Amino acid sequence: MIIDGVWSADLHGDHCLFMNIGEHHPEQQTSIEAYIYDTRGIDEGFFLKYLNTSPKASAYAPLFKKNGYATMCGLLDRYVREGILERVPNGFKRTAR
Q1: Which of 21, 36, 66, 88 has the highest local Cβ count within 10 Å?
Q2: Of 34, 41, 29, 42, whose CA–CA distance to 10 is shortest?
Q3: 56 in Cβ contact with 28 (< 8 Å)
Q4: Which helix H or strand E contains 81, and what residues bound it?
Q5: What are the residues whose beta carbons fall under 8 Å from the beta carbon of 1, sequence distance 6 or more?
């Protein structure tokens, strides 16, 4: 499904993958995947994919080049220890502060 000529949406299972297909859009090729039943959740793998595909996040991508998934999990677990995030069944959520 194409949304507004810039984003495509691919519903599959409990997820939806949004891909920026805008030929001249600054976020072209950016991939954002989300759980459709709770879009406030942060999945470490989905977030890592976003960092690796978004031109706006390109400065952060090298930090996750080696052991990217483990590094992402460590970062999000640190935010849990600091009380910024909490673990939920499908990843992480921002705490109500």
Answers
A1: 21
A2: 34
A3: no
A4: helix 68-81
A5: 8, 9, 10, 11
